[in-house]
């Protein structure tokens, strides 16, 4: 297993292997593989995943909320919830009867940092990837705190890779289930934008290379069932696809 | 920096250094140091800290709650919030005007595990330590989700060490501020006991050696101010002491 850089024309991409980790100056090993022959796993192992709730106004409304909150609402998902592209989301049918997809833009941190000013947020961002903030909606409502509902193993698909050269301010974000479009938003609709979120979270806790901030989901969230194939696609990044299997 | 085993009579304890990590069979390096000459840091670096809310009835009442919840309420603290004995809790005065102590029994996991049955919980527990679930009470009330309020750097003192041979079912737990007793409970008052919590949390997420479950706080929580010295003492374990400094 190795980190690598994905390059090349569409349909002819290859992966150049990187020695060690990709934060800071990278060094290539010289090994190159066609992307089609590589099995991608989650593009990083975050020490923490900080997620933002209620960050698209139309999603706040569909959840029955009145006004979006003045400040970002933060919660977290455990590192054990992370899976990569192509891995299966395990539906915990004994504990939940309603598991929803939530497509999101994920920010990957590249530098140890805290109390980052908004105008310097770009300096600590390594890149962007797609995320699915899978949520046991029934448990979320019952518990009040969201940690259990959003913390199951496999409930944080990330990938397919990290795009390091990207302006995140106005990207189309689309979630499909079995090929049917369910969420279709733009990151320009974020109530609190990426630099604001990096500043807000890092004012509380030190961020470490590989840490991930999930920026919230647009309207259209809905249930998954066993056998579904769910994809989160973001303009300029790529598409993260996972199927749903029964855990039990 | 090394792991070690604390042994010997009270006042004459010494630390025997351990090669590598302490999970599984341990091997001593042969180095021994008087405890008084050793600087203890947090006894583990947890990949995650899962905490339980509202797990003592008298604390539920003091927080204005009615009935304790039928199921444990779980939330989490980031690994970046951990400090060891003697390290300072940094009061984020720009963001909070009310930071409380919460003395708690912490369970340290010793084995990779998931879906642990209650009756086998003891097999996955490495030991017990003292914890202070420091909480920005004003932010906790304002946010609804507790992640920010409980997630600041330094808000999870752990230590002074891990007691590996201990029955956790009826231990006195005492929190003092500047030597004055503020919390005085017994772990027999836990609404959901230690084996139940291990089963409950591991039904959701895989636990990894070093992961920590905080079992909840008894009544008597209250504010800290800069300059305070706060101690959490648990019968059969020891005492975790930290002072409070201004972050800003």
TrEMBL record, chains A, B:
Identify the keywords attached in UniProt to this record, alphabetized: Metal-binding
What is an annotated GO biological process for this record, any one?
Answer: carboxylic acid metabolic process
Any one GO MF annotation of this record: isomerase activity
Where's the Fumarylacetoacetase-like C-terminal domain? Answer: 48-245
**Domain of life where this protein originates:** Bacteria
* Pfam families (UniProt xref): FAA_hydrolase (PF01557), Rv2993c-like_N (PF10370)
Positions of the Rv2993c-like N-terminal domain: 2-43
Question: Keyword Metal-binding: yes or no?
Answer: yes
InterPro entries linked: Fumarylacetoacetase-like_C, Fumarylacetoacetase_C_sf, Rv2993c-like_N
Q: What is this protein called?
A: 2-keto-4-pentenoate hydratase/2-oxohepta-3-ene-1,7-dioic acid hydratase (Catechol pathway)
Q: Which organism is it from?
A: Sinosporangium album
């Amino acid at each position: 297993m190795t980190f690598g850089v994905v390059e090349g024309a569409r349909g002819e991409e290859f992966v150049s292997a990187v020695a060690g980790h990709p934060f800071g100056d990278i060094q290539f090993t010289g090994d190159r593989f066609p992307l089609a022959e590589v099995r991608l796993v989650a593009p990083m192992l975050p020490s923490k995943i900080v997620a933002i709730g209620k960050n698209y106004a139309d999603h706040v409304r569909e959840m029955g909320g009145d006004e979006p909150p003045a400040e970002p609402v933060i919660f977290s998902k455990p590192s054990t919830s992370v899976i990569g592209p192509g891995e299966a989301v395990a539906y915990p049918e004994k504990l939940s009867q309603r598991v929803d997809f939530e497509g999101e833009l994920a920010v990957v941190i590249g530098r140890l940092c805290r109390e980052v000013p908004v105008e310097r947020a770009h300096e600590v961002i390594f890149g962007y990837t797609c995320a699915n903030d899978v949520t046991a909606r029934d448990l979320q409502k019952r518990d009040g705190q969201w940690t259990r509902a959003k913390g199951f193993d496999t409930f944080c698909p990330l990938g397919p890779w990290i795009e390091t050269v990207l302006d995140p301010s106005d990207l189309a974000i689309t979630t499909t289930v079995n090929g049917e479009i369910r969420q279709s938003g733009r990151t320009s609709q974020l109530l609190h934008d990426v630099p604001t979120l990096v500043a807000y979270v890092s004012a509380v806790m030190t961020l470490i290379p590989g840490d991930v901030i999930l920026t919230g989901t647009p309207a259209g969230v809905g249930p998954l069932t066993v056998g579904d194939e769910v994809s989160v696609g973001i303009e300029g990044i790529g598409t993260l696809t996972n199927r749903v299997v029964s855990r039990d």
